[in-house]
Design goal:
Layout lengths: L5 E4 L3 H9 L8 E2 L10 H11 L5 E4 L2 H5 L2 H10 L6
Length: 86
């Protein structure tokens, strides 16, 4: 990933792995629900991050259950031309 990338994760193992291995040099780069159990957090969070910092790459790590909760947000990204990667 580019050094300036913003990353969001969903709950579960994907969050634990990201916490263990991803490193960021720039503040406001990692968005995670931590232990609050917010299934479906990653995709809407990265959309908000991308709108706040349009010049930075935006990546969401989304699990299969949370992906099913994100179809409304996919429509928003397409309609509003918000370039994020999930």
């Amino acid at each position: 990933m580019p050094p300036r990338a913003m990353v969001s994760t969903d709950i579960g193992n994907i969050n634990s792995v990201a916490n263990s291995y991803l490193r960021f040099e720039k503040p406001r780069s990692f968005f995670a629900p931590m232990s609050f159990g917010n299934c479906g957090y990653a995709f809407p969070a990265i959309i908000g991050a991308k709108l706040a910092a349009p010049g930075r790459p935006a990546v969401a790590y989304v699990g299969d259950g949370a992906w099913g909760m994100s179809f409304g947000e996919i429509l928003t990204c397409v309609r509003e031309k918000i370039p994020v990667t999930a």
